[in-house]
Amino acid sequence: MDDRVVDRLLGVPPFRAMDHAAFPDRLPLRSLLANDTRVLNFKQGDLIIREGEYGDSAYLMLHGAGRIALDALEEVADNAPQKKSGRLARAVARLWNAPLAREVRSRPRGERSARRLGVRGSGDHPTFFLQDIPRVISDCYTLPIQPGEVFGELGALTRSPRSASVFAESDSVVLEIRWQGLRDLMRYSPEMKRHVERAYRENSLRVHLRETPLLAHLSEEQLAEVANATQFVTHGAFDWHSELLAEKPGDLFARVEREPVVAEEGTLPEGLLLLRSGFGRVSQRRGDGHQTVLYIGKGAVFGACALAHGVRTGQTPTLPLSLRAVGYLDVLLIPTRVFQEVIAPALPAEELDALVKQYERQHCAAETGLPARTLDFLVDRRLVNGEQTMVIDLDRCTRCDDCVRACAATHDGNPRFVRQGPIHDHFQYANACMHCVDPVCMIGCPTGAIHRDLESGVVKINDPTCIGCSTCANSCPYHNIRMVEARTPAGAVLSDDAGLPIIKATKCDLCGDQPTGPACQHACPHDALTRVSVAAGAPLAEFLGADTPAAPSGGTA
């Protein structure tokens, strides 16, 4: 961004009111705007944000006007709902119509969508737009966005799917702020920090608190008091997947030491920590190193038993375990005073006693049932992110490749996974899509082709809207997405109007069209292969043959 544009940005709110002296010399406000923002122009009706997509940017309306559509635009705009056949019918049709060549596609046509969404532009960055704005405004519940308003910040900070679509009501100029820039603006500008936190408090915080079992006994008044005192804290790197791709195997102790410390063993707890997104390593000192006790994720609670012990005994407690951010961790901090005065008195006596007993055992976390070295392996390779990880018992596997052939038979003759991947003990974690808790592959997809099905949780690729840009494949730190050349029924490579090969992204879709589920798992004659949630913990421990049942990653410590 050139200096003239930066000068204009510094003259508009909220940047005009920011104190330049509050920003460090190494990161002045001018430099932040030049490197972490860009100006985008949208025509009337253009979609700025699409509901359900993942992104790592927030937006500021500079000129024009926008609207937040709180109803699903596709549902409103689709006049003729299409019938969807059952799984069995789709499976039979796929088998009957199986092509002889691999990855057969038809040449893209400019067919008009039944939905009132048009496409402007081509290449890696097409723009979707509404073709009937007055009808959308009349049929949808929408909220206006005026110049100077920031939107999309919650989805960017928590890496959660966008909760609503935003479109340009008139020709508009919008400033896109990358996550790194938004983070620094919140760090050095109290106004921006207050704006983002106020939006979260108003829209999402009470729901999050109410869904936390430890707070389920609070009244509405008590919940409001807790919400008003809650602080927002972020640790680690938001783009952890890039670091993982570049990271080389090294000393485990050194890697643990590099992880940001959220709460340290032996210190006084600042308060109750609620994990909002990301993953954390819970560890205990063992000699000169650290032993991983547990990994926890979204929905988990840390510090509860130490605080409960302090309430019951009147003593000043210290933390028996440490919590570190594995890549990225976003937490809500409820101060100790609020726990003592509001939360603890509302807890049933038996729940408080259980927390105190955990602290007295000096092991304030649920056992996973997995050996420490297995936990270290899973955490260090971020496999704890997996919801449907393919795990193969190599002692049972005979390398017959029935799993690969079954996958190919249900996916245009080309398997959607590779029977290779990291190995620990005699178990292989194969290169198949894990349908992650934090699906970083979705970030940056220009068409929204890669998305999560809200009903099943499966991460899917909509083949007709995939433009083959490879953004998802390059973002996946597990190498589980592959780009393939589309072909004609005769097997020739399909080319576009410019004569270039048409490329498509492919990955495991958990055989959503099959009534029996994943074909790979059901084809294995030796039960050597399973799809399991590493994030949940217990199913993996059972398959690995652990002696005790594992605790889920979302628990209380």
TrEMBL record:
CDD domains, per the entry: CAP_ED, DMSOR_beta_like
GO molecular function terms listed in the Swiss-Prot or TrEMBL record: 4 iron, 4 sulfur cluster binding; metal ion binding
Identification of the protein by name: Putative ferredoxin-like protein YdhX
Gene3D superfamilies xref list: 3.30.70.20, Jelly Rolls (2.60.120.10)
Family annotation (Pfam families): cNMP_binding, Fer4_11
Domain 4Fe-4S ferredoxin-type: 388-407, 457-486
Domain Cyclic nucleotide-binding: 33-107, 145-203, 214-345
InterPro entries noted in UniProt: 4Fe4S_Fe-S-bd (IPR017896), 4Fe4S_Fe_S_CS (IPR017900), cNMP-bd_dom (IPR000595), cNMP-bd_dom_sf (IPR018490), RmlC-like_jellyroll (IPR014710), RnfB_subfamily (IPR050294)
Keyword set, alphabetical order: 4Fe-4S, Iron, Iron-sulfur, Metal-binding, Repeat
Signal peptide from the UniProt entry: none
